[in-house]
Amino acid sequence: MIVAERKSIPELVEILKAHKKILVLGCGTCVTVCLAGGEREVSIISSALRIASKVQGLGFEIDEFVIERQCDNIFIEQAAEAIQKCDAVLSLGCGAGVQAIAERYPQKPVYAGLNTAFLGILEERGVWAEKCAACGSCVLDKYGGICPVTRCAKHMLNGPCGGSREDRCEVRPDRPCAWQLIYTRLKGIGQLDRLKQIESPKNWRSSLSGGPRVIIREDHRI
Amino acid sequence: MMNIENTEPTIVAFCCHYCAYAAADLAGSSRLQYPPNVRIIRTPCTGRLEVDFFMKAFENGADGVLVAGCEEGSCHFKEGNLLAKRRVNYTRKLLSEAGLEAERLRMVNIGAADAQKFAEHVREMVETVRKLGPARLKKATNQG
Ligand code: SF4
Ligand code: SF4
Description:
The complex is a heterodimer. Chain A is α/β, with parallel strands linked by helices. Helices cover 29% and strands 19% of the residues of chain A. In chain A, the strands form two sheets. A four-stranded parallel β-sheet of chain A has the order 3-2-4-5, sandwiched between helices. Chain A has a three-stranded antiparallel β-sheet with strand order 1-6-7. The two termini of chain A are 29 Å apart. Chain B is an alpha/beta fold. Chain B has one domain. The longest helix of chain B is centred in the middle third of the chain and has 19 residues. Chain B starts with 10 loop residues before the first strand and ends in a 12-residue tail after the last helix. The complex binds iron/sulfur cluster (2 copies).
């Protein structure tokens, strides 16, 4: 899922202070699961903004609404009335959701209420960890399903770097060394031989260095 | 004009059924004096309380919120009070981000027989909030 976290209330106040009627718009998909932009967070952030408004005399009128998915036009339609009525939208969707709403409403200021951080999973309660950097040409098959691009701090395709201590990464000792994980996993599935293969440098053209990416499926176009 | 000095603060106290609520009850039946400004809400466990509950209490006019759970280590549901403590700490941070003093929200731990302690905590809370003055969020509507 896409993992995000909220911006601070002073940041949001700064972003919104020129507006009066504000719609806090949540998204029921990834950001609900990572507890950043679902129904509950819309309610909490709206309360915090109302309190900030009272205490600081900002004159906000805050409305709340949640749709199933902000990155999908079909669902955005359900928020049409609420969006029409407000002066500005504070989207608690991921960066894609915010932009989808903004594209749909060219006359309406739409702001991001979250910092979209990464693609990851819930490791344990309250802890989300990055697993994929969406590099555009996946190499997981070679590494036992553990991504060195994302999870090795040095993005090494031929690791380890030699700096890991026990099973910890030398750059972030609070995280496991991805190469230790790769070794253990390949051993477990009987594919340690793969490590004898020297990988050539990765082609980054499929990643951000090739400019904004788009996928076109001719078979689905009309 | 309202005389702020004379305005009695409103305190909402979320009390765990297994300890603080019993202590509050005992304080009442033992005729212990504690300020009448406190509105008690019984909860099955402080672990049931969420950040939003505290936020809504303030939004709806509380000047202070007291969360009273069991002593650490003696929660009826093992660790509900520890979960509550985390949520209270998070909410305190959120409140101060919004410009409201974090001291207006406080968690305390009380045994079921501690009527005296309950009365003291309420008195202290009222004292703190009186010093800070009203939260001025009363009759909060959509309009901020
Ligand atoms: S190799 Fe690329 S696509 Fe595959 S998991 Fe890693 S970052 Fe994601
Ligand atoms: S310690 Fe492991 S994860 Fe960290 S940079 Fe070195 S090889 Fe990568």
